[in-house]
Amino acid sequence: MSPECAWLTLVVCLLIQAAGARGNPVCTARSNIGKEVLVGSDLTVSCFFNKKCSKIIFRDGEQIKHEQSPDLDVMSVNVKNLTKLSIFTCKCNKDPEPCGIDIAPGYPPDIPQNLTCIRKTESGNVTCTWKIGRDTKIPTTCQLWVQGGPPHFYRSVMNSSRFCFATFPIIGSMSQLTLRLNVSNGLGSNVSGPHNFILSNIVKPSRPNISHVECFSRRCHLHTDNHSMNLVEVKYRVKLQIWDSLQTNAASLNISSLRPYTTYEFQIRRKINHTMGLWSDWSRAKEAETKEEAPDKPLDIWYIQEPKSETCFRIFWKKLSKSEAKGKIQRYKISVQTQKKMNSTTVASNITSRIICCHLCSVSVSAVNSKGQSPAIFMELCSPAPGLVLRIVSHILSNNSIALFWPMLATAGNIKEYVVHWFPVGAKEKLQWTRVVDTTANITDLQPEKCYQVGVTALRSSGPVMASLEGISTWQSVPEQGPGLQLILKESESLQVKWSKIPQSKIRGCLRKYSIYLEDDPKDIQHYSVEPTKKQYTISGLSPGQCYKLWVTAWTDAGQGPRGIDLSVCTPTYSEKLMSLVILAGAVILLICLMFLCICQFSSVQKRFLSCCQCLLPTVIPDPANSKCAKEYAVEEFHHQCDSSVSEEPDIVEVEEVPYPSSFICTYIKSFSQGSSSSDGTQITRSTDITEDYICTHGVISGGEDEEEDEEDRILEEFGFLPCSSLFLEPLILSGERLTLDVVKINCCEFLDDT
Predict the structure, then answer these.
(1) How far apart are CA 341 and CA 75, in angstroms?
(2) Which residues contact 381 (CB under 8 A, 6 or more apart)?
(3) Residue 16: is it exposed, middle or buried by C-beta count within 10 angstroms (0-12/13-18/19+)?
(4) String of DSSP letters for 575-637
């Protein structure tokens, strides 16, 4: 051998030795009674080490104390009453490779029981199942021997439900089976048998199938697959309710006595005959709905009288159940019959109440579906007979029910039945009712912390007798919030307090009263009680000019609720009250004046007002020529025009009314004046100047319209000293060719102003 080969052989040997050393375990763990033990056993777990080291032992991951054996390579630990699977691990302190053992406590198997065998027609194999009594907690093996000719052995493992099973074929023309069972585990075994079976008795047909269902209003016919079935069992039910069943043959799968417009579930299973074989598995459920019919049950209707009305009633009716409706309700027909005629109307299917106003009438409500309508039963609408009132007594049964009692009337023989109705206060649309023949009734399904109004009506041939009881509740608590003050009217010695209603959901019961608190000093607080139906109260006997603090609380049978928002208010003094009255009176007068001015802008009002005030005008009109203003103006004009002091003859003025064109709104007076003068005693003939002036007659010619705005503005500017119209004067219409100064009243001050 060459030196190279010798070195190579040495290296390989060292590697093999190292690998072998690494493959040997550091230690070995053992139990003195094995890995599977009875529940509650005591045992000793030992670890045998291959080398000397510092040894430690763990149980389920936690280090435990151990006994040191005289042999330094062995470590042992004693375990008492082992009841669950435990993992023991041993290792050297510095070596990562441990050793260990799993100890599983358990029980030996019981005798096998409940053996059943089925031969399925689709495969021809036999499947047997059996059960073990109690859970062994450790792996258990099941064995089945089939005898008859050479024995056959079939093996399985018990599942988590403690069942064992085995499937095997039928060999040859076997008509009978003989079976033996064996179950075993590490703690023991048990055997049962022999068990004998006749093959014809364990034949189980395959599961049938419902292809479709044909339904009418009250019966359905089932159509199945082509499997041959001599005996069939059918079970059916209204969806999610209790099953009904019947047995029939395969040729007649008709299910009768069903309800119209109802969804049913159907299932079937089959068997060879009454005496042979097993029932197959149930088919999958098949749903089908029967067809509609016209409803044959009348609606239950009731009514209550509308407040503050003797001829208006609110009609309520209960919806029919799906089985009673026998179809989808499309609408409701309301018929009102009076002495003269009958009127009918329809409402949508989601409406359950209606207001009817009539006098001496009867009403009926019918439910309508695609096949027809329910019977119409008329109920007479009339107010309860006056003077007859039932006294209702209530008693709380639980948090959602109340018992009612009332006395029987003296005319009890005429009473057909009693109708008890109730609804939450403020929510008549949620009215419910029930009919009883006795003088007691239980109201159920009430909501706690809700206040209800209850009524009992005795239906008699001579007319109904009704009693109403408001304020019934099952369980109450104090109100959740207090009323809010809205408005306060202040007087010198009184306060009018108003407050808002508490939401019904915040009252948490039946409202019994309000309390008003008035505080002018922390030590002096007055309170006033107010009925629950009122929302305002006047507090009198107060001091003028005094400041107070106000708040309001609400009460139920459970007690007083929290106070509302405090409000500070001061009563006015007498002087403040007088000042406020003066201001109010001034405001009223100003408002009246403004209204009067607005009304006077209408010409028709002006004419009527002027006609009423003509009697106040002076009957004698003074001559303008003799007025002081006219004389002073004449003297001043005379000195202005002439230097001579010689007196001249007064001018002769002829005045004639000349109608101006109708396009203007004024009639003017045409004035002709002619003047002559002489000086130094010599009569000098002067040229005669004729001037034409127009004086407004203060009248408006009816029917006149503006034709040329520019011409009108020029004329008005020329004669601006006299207005052409007045707000309160009627038009002055004159007739004749001459107008004397006795008739015309001229204000000459305008002439002086112009100069």
Answers:
(1) 112
(2) 303, 313, 356, 358, 361, 362, 363
(3) exposed
(4) HHHHHHHHHHHHHHHHHHHHHHHHHHTSHHHHHHHHHHHGGGS-SSPPPGGGSHHHHHHHHHH
Confidence band for 666, pLDDT divided at 50, 70 and 90: very low
Residue 537 backbone class (left: φ over 0; alpha: ψ -120 to 50; beta: rest):
beta
What is the pTM for the complete model shown?
0.54
Give domain status of residue 595, yes or no. Answer: no
To which H or E segment does residue 117 belong?
strand 113-120
Give the number of residues written for the chain: 755
DSSP E strands, 132-281: 141-147, 152-157, 163-168, 176-185, 188-198, 203-204, 210-215, 220-224, 231-238, 244-248, 254-255, 263-271
Of 585 and 664, the one with more pLDDT: 585
Question: Token digits for 173?
Answer: 């023309």
Single-letter residue type at 255 = I
Residue found under tokens 């009305």: 309
Q: Phi and psi (nearest 5°) for 409?
A: -75, 160
Q: Are strands 432-436 and 393-398 parallel, antiparallel or unpaired?
A: unpaired
Residue 708 has a pLDDT of 44
> In this structure, are 653 and 735 located in the same domain?
yes
Residue 6 lies inside a defined structural domain of this protein: no
Q: Which of 496, 517, 494 is nearest to 564 (CA)?
A: 517
The SS3 call for residue 3 is helix
Closest alpha carbon to 540 in 523, 549, 528, 551: 528
Domain total of the chain: 7
Please state, in angstroms and rounded to a whole number, the distance separating the CA atoms of residues 278 and 301. 55
CATH of the domain at 243: 2.60.40.10
96 and 122 housed in the same domain: no
For 458, the domain range is 393-472
Q: What is the pLDDT of residues 274-328, one digit of tens each?
A: 888 899 999 999 999 999 999 999 999 999 888 888 889 999 999 999 889 999 9
What string of DSSP letters covers 376-413?
P--EEE-PPPTT-----EEEEEETTEEEEE-PPPTTGG
Query: How far apart, in Å, are the Cα atoms of 736 and each of 416, 659, 662, 733?
Result: 98, 11, 18, 10
CA-CA distance, 12 to 262, in Å (whole number)? 89
Structure tokens at 216: 């009418």
